[in-house]
Structures are given as structure tokens and as C-alpha cells.
Amino acid sequence: MIKSVRGTRDLLPPETALWNFVESAVRDVFRAYNFQEIRTPIFEETALFARSVGEETDIVAKEMYTWEDRGRAASEKGQSLTLRPEATAGIVRAYIEHKLGDRGLNKLYCIGPMFRRERPQKGRYRQFYQIDAEVIGPPSAGSESPARDAEILEMLATLLDRLGITDWDLELNSVGCANDRAAFNEALRKALEPVVGRMCVDCQRRAVTNPLRVFDCKVPEDQPIIEKLPRISQFLDEPCRQHFEKVQAIVQAVGVPFTLNDRLVRGLDYYTRTAFEFTHGALGAQNAILGGGRYDGLSESLGGPAAPGIGFAIGEDRLVMSLKESAEGVVRKPDVYIAPLGAGTNPEAARLARELRHHDLVVELGDESFRLKKSFEVATKAGAKYILIVGENEVKADAFALKNLATGEQVSVPRADLPRQIGQN
Ligand code: HAM
């Protein structure tokens, strides 16, 4: 038997009702902040991710699904393509390609699958779903303003509240700009020199190629060493320090609680200045529901114009796991099950179903070959509120037996009254 591939899974009903519940709340909230949807391809040129997310990150170094495409001619070498491990790179590529900066500030979001070849566990999959949002534009459109950072953080707090997720923590840091990073990397290299020999092989490599990535290390034995390393917060230049303070001042003013965490550097290389994560205790080891930050130099590093930006991605799988709501609570059960009774009653039952569905009722339709007992069983199993019997006599009288499956109460209802009768309560 062929099964789903390790790290992938099927999302089945009624669980999918929760996903729809989340996505419709997300679209409502995003609309209120004037975000619009963008859909980019699921695969891109490998170089896009290597240059934006960064060669030395776990994502690019270990986790990408990459293959060489066939060339047009047999002799021609194919392109290297990669399933997107995240959405920001593709959105910034689209921003550059379509000159979206001409429109001023862009507030974009996308919802869809991402792919990382990580070790699967609860809350970690190889195909997972992100709800990603980005605010990007030319500096003249105010894209660099701390007001944008704070607006994003406040929007996320609003969204989580709206979904009934209460016990989240917002961790905030500034990872500075390229200037700060140069000084910080220098200090990190120095601090690592005497101790790196005792660290894991990944850290030994990172210490040379990209020392900031040492902070991504999960090896328990390395943690006491990492705890003592210098922090980026000590290396912020004046503009970066001020920017970060202004972000915090607005976030405080709008009443969103946060904690500062100067170890938070995020696992992608494009970040500058504000970096953040929302965590949720109940999730266990994979407790980051979402993460994001600023990437003021990303567009230029991909050959585009100056286009500061900030964004985030919610792990939708994890968001759904942290809902208190149950799938049963959000799924809409049939208002009525229509049971045609006896040969030749299917057409009339279909007509009734069509009429009732026009009234925005959820209608399940049986078949004239079912005996009454079977129709009742099927209707009950489907969780229908009412069963509507469509037999020969009913068709003649144009009034139908309607039974409330919870109370057992049965009434005869003229056709014209059916929508009101079924739709009430
Ligand atoms: P990220 O932190 O790599 O950031 O991913 C964001 C979220 O995606 C994580 O907090 C987590 O909830 C979810 N996630 C990541 N990997 C997995 C996985 N294997 N299984 C399940 N969920 C996962 C980014 O991707 C950035 N592009 C965010 C961003 C947008 N920054 C600026 N704009």
C-alpha cells in the first residue's frame, strides 16, 4: 500500500473546518489592516533562497528540496530548482520583478505550503503551512518606520486574541544593521576562538563562515558556552538603537506585552533590526507559533531597488494545534437531511434541496432506494438537525413531514414555510 511520505500528512475533515476557521479570521483581520493577497509559485530558482535565507543557515545547508530540472534540449544543462522553504524570498523576488515599489507601500500576504527536510515530530513537518505577511516599499513610502514594525506586532496580538489564543509570549530583539553586524561578528569570532574547539562540528564551521548562526545551535552541551557570548544588543549603532526604542514605545502604547530576548537572532540571514517570535507554552518543544522581522537590505541583495521591509510567518499547523476550539465546534452540520421515500421521489427531493440551499441552508440529500430506517440512520450520523420526508403523499399535498432529530417532534410543513421552519434557531 502506498502511504503519505514521511513528514507529510493529510488534513481530513472535520479538522479542515478548523483550518478554514483560522484562514477566514486571518483574512478578516488582514483586511482591516489593508493587506492584500499575493500568490507566488511553490518552486523557485535555488539561488533565490541561497542568496536571501543564506548559505550557512540550516534551511539552505540541510533542509531544502532541490533538484536539477531538465534542460530544454537534451544537451542543455537544467536549472537548479527548489521547493520554497519559506515565502519572503519569493515575495521580494516578485516585488522586484513587477516593480511593485512604484505602487508605494505594499502590504501583502500569502497562505500556502512550505517545504523543509527537517526531522519530523509533533508540530514539525516536511510539508507545513505558513500564513505569511510582508510590508515592503521604497524608503519614501515610510517602509523603514518603526510604526510599521509596531503595527505588525499589534496586528498579530489582535489576530491571536480573535482566535481565542491567550497564553502567548512575544519575544523581541534587534539584530542591528550591516554595520553593527560587522563589529558583532568580529567580537563573536574573538570570543569563540578559545572555546570553539569544545563545541559541535556545526558551530566550529559557523564560527568561521557566519558566527551569528552559532546562536541557532540546539546542542545542550554548547549552551553554557553560547550563554557567555557577546550579544548583538551591545553592538547596535545609534540609529538602530533609536529605531528599536521607538518600536518598543509604540508597542507599549498600544498595550501589547513583550519581553526582550537578546539571544533571539532567528534562523534566516536576511534580518536587520527588529526580530521577533510569538511562542505558546502548550505546544511543547516546537513552541514557536510564528516568527518574523525586518529585512531592510534584502531587495538590494537580490539586485533590486532599496526596499526596506518587515514581515512574519505563522506556522499554521501549530496555530491550529494551539486553538481551544474543537473541530466539532466550528464545523457546520446539515440543517436538514432530505429523505426521498419510494420510487420516483428523487426528482422532487432534488428540487426541494435546490430551493432550501438557495436559502443558505446546509442540505444533505438521500436516495429513494433507502428505506425510512436507513434514512434516519444516515441523517443521525451526519448530525442533521431535521429530517424531511419526501414521499408520494407529501408530494401530492405539497406539505412535508419534518422531524426534529433531537426532540423527536414531527410536524407537517407546507412547502413555502420550509425555509423558515428549518432555518429557525
Ligand atoms: P521561520 O521562523 O523559519 O520564519 O518560520 C515561521 C514559522 O513557521 C515558525 O515559527 C513555525 O511556526 C513555522 N514552521 C517552520 N518550520 C516548520 C516545520 N518544519 N513544521 C511546522 N511549522 C514550521 C520564516 O519562515 C520567515 N520567512 C518569516 C518572515 C516573514 N520573516 C519576515 N517575513
CATH level-4 homologous superfamily of the largest domain: Bira Bifunctional Protein, Domain 2
Largest sheet: 8 strands, mixed
Beta strand %: 15-25%
Shape: elongated
CATH class of the largest domain: Alpha Beta
Write out the strand line-up for the largest beta sheet, numbering strands in chain order. Answer: 1-5-6-11-10-9-7-8
Whole-angstrom Rg: 28 Å
Structural description of this entry:
This protein is α+β, with helices and mostly antiparallel strands and 425 residues long. The protein folds into 2 domains: 15-177 and 237-327, Bira Bifunctional Protein, Domain 2 (BirA Bifunctional Protein, domain 2), CATH 3.30.930; 336-423, Rossmann fold (3-Layer(aba) Sandwich). It has 16 helices and 16 strands. An 8-stranded mixed beta sheet has the order 1-5-6-11-10-9-7-8, sandwiched between helices. Strands 13-12-14-15-16 form a 5-stranded mixed beta sheet, sandwiched between helices. Strands 2-4-3 form a 3-stranded antiparallel beta sheet. Helix 1 packs antiparallel against helix 5 (146-162) and helix 5 packs parallel to helix 9 (238-253). The mean pLDDT is 95. Bound molecules: histidyl-adenosine monophosphate. Histidyl-adenosine monophosphate binds at residues 86-88, 116, 118, 123-125, 128, 130, 132, 134, 267-268, 288-293, 311-313, 315, 317-318.
